Amino acid sequence: MSCTPGAAILDRVTVLADVASIVSRSHDLRETLGNVVDLVAKRLDADVCSVYLTDPDLKHLTLWATRGLALEAIGKVRLSFTEGLVGLAAREKRTVVTRRASEHPAYRYFPETGEERFESLMAAPLIVREVPIGVLVVQTMHERSFERPDCELLQTCAQLIAPVVMNARLLDLVTRSDDQKARVVADLALLGLPLLEERTAPPRRTDLQGIATSPGIAIGPVYRLEDPLDISAVEYTPNPEPAGEAADLQRALEAARRELDDVREEVGERFGPEFAAVFNTHMQILEDHGFVSRLERAVALTGNAREALRKVLAAYRETFDKIEDLYFRERALDLEDVARRVMGNLLGVRHHNVPLAEGSIIVAEHILPAHFALLETEKVAGIVSEHGGATSHGALFARSLEIPAVTGVSGILEAVRPGEIAIVDGASGRVHLAPDARLRAEYERAQHRYEIAVEHLDALKDRPAETRDGHRVALTGNVGLLNDLRLIERHGAEGIGLFRTELLALAHRGFPEEAEQERLYSRVARVMAPRPVTIRTLDLGGDKTLPLMDVEPEENPQLGWRSIRLMLSHENAFRAQLRAILRASASGNVRCLLPLVSSIEELRCVKLIVADLMQELAKQGIAFDRDMPIGIMIEVPSAALIADALARECDFFSIGTNDLTQYTLAVDRGNERVAKLYEPLHPAVLLLIDRSVRAAAAHGIPVSVCGEMASSPLAVPLLVGLGLDELSGTPSAVPIMKEIVRALDRGEAARDARCALQASTAGEVRVLAAGRLRTAGLLDHPEIGSWLRTIVETAERES
Ligand code: PEP
Ligand code: MG
Predict the structure, then answer these.
(1) Which residues line ligand 1 at a C-beta cut-off of 6 Å?
(2) pTM reported for the whole predicted model
(3) 351, 393, 491, 682: which one is catalytic?
């Protein structure tokens, strides 16, 4: 290709934008191509612009659209790949440029087009998956040298229209008769062209991003959990005797019940009874008379248990699909789970433990609670799922077991190959498939640092969290499962700074019963006593949605009907929870925490309900702590701004920096596109924390931070300096927080905090905090020194 300088200067970007716009509005191929050739001719200042498309024989091109050639030539001019400059562009899959076309050895004259009048030519092939599906050509009457940018522009235009051409030819199928369809499909196949679904198939991706669900780093071989059994597709031969088939079905039902019972027990033992609830629902279905008798009737009719399952399932699905309410519609999923279990038993495929290699990375469509009962979890190093968020049931299990996990990794199922090595970074949400030696070594080092640090620090758990100058800071843990209590013990947290109760509700897919809540909270209070347990009332909605009857999807769920707002309008459920918390207060040192308070009225409203419930309980002679502290979370800027008024009427503050950062900076905490803007060390967030701490101090009430910020090494010195009494973080981070606290001098930390409040950017704050970790000697810490060094150096480099 020869591109010599000398042609018009083009506004490349606008041309491409215009072509892209035509293409994006395309609904008729001829019209689209007509518009493209008009535009390109005009913008390239060419006398002719044409599009030739490849015929299904892959050997010829036909003129489909032109501006400048005789219009009658459309559909008539047909040339072989071996003919002319246009054929050359298609055959060699490259752009052909010539100043004097008639002198080019490949030149060929087509009388229908009147082409002899044109001198210079530039032809770019339309390529889809290495197949030339057409050619975009421009010609000029007078001799002209096309510049390199002209060639590139034409190539890019060709690239833009190629998929549209492809798509249009496929979509055209629906308008054809079956005969024609078959022919076109055969033609397309012959062309080796991708069919519709393949068109979008991306090349294999090896670096994927998902939702950081459970922290830690795992490196190991991939174990791909198979897709659930497809009842319609499995091969099944029924018993030749109808009575035998009916008996087989009964046996399968019975086996499924036994199986469920085992799973329920195993999960209950491992994770606490609250998680067995999911399996209760399944058992209920298996024992439902309607379900079972429908199955029996269908098997009597068809003599085929698989057909019976399929029919009954379809009937239920049809009914469920008509239900508007999401909660009830979702019950169909439970039915399908149950039917698959029965089918498995019909086939003799008992749900048994899947043999796993040591240190496997499980890759599945969803992380399901059942996986934890079926898999040998001690062999699971990490978990990745295509779907699901950080609050799915399975995610809760993963966190509880401290298994690094990343959920919502779109494309992982397609990209992953069983047995290959994968890296799961549960803190950042990154997954790397088949990493090269350098990347693997890097992660191995990080993993090693992480594990060693956790181990060594746990051994020091009994040391007090006290600054060098003798100031105590309470270090507590955030938990949500009974099973998490062992983490509190293992990592030496001084209590529970945040007990997230919504996990129980999510496991139930609804508001749990009062009695069940009471059992759970009392048990937690008893186990922890006399250490404090801060139980937060249900913080549902936003990203923790529960399929409730009256809750429709919202435009802005984070600003919508969530948390305390939702509970105040579901008063019965709220009263049930508050009663359960009050009753549990008799068993230990319980505090009640209200999330997302944004006004004083909300606090007053809850206090009235609590006062009423106290009277009720007293009347019934039920024990509770009359002085149970009621605190609020500061996680909305309005609450921080009126902290003084709120502090006057509540017993403690707990600052939820996860939400406070989100609402102060207007950055969705779950949106990866704005993740870079999500910065708890932003001076605006610090100013609100400072204001809340001062208000708490002025009214003599304790104040803690329970957002993730409390366990961030850079934030800890600043939070201590701002005067926080308590930091509540992920239990496994508590030992690290303690080492940092112990290396600080409160006076110095306070000076840093004052400077941070004067800073203009989060970068300045990070440098300040990094400097403190450095001067406190923490970079030489035998356990966490090298890990902190990376954090400090990154903060200094990036600020
Ligand atoms: C917070 O917002 O900081 C908090 C602790 O609550 P959650 O993360 O559960 O919203
Ligand atoms: Mg919150």
Answers:
(1) 498, 500, 539, 635, 656-659, 706-707
(2) 0.66
(3) 393
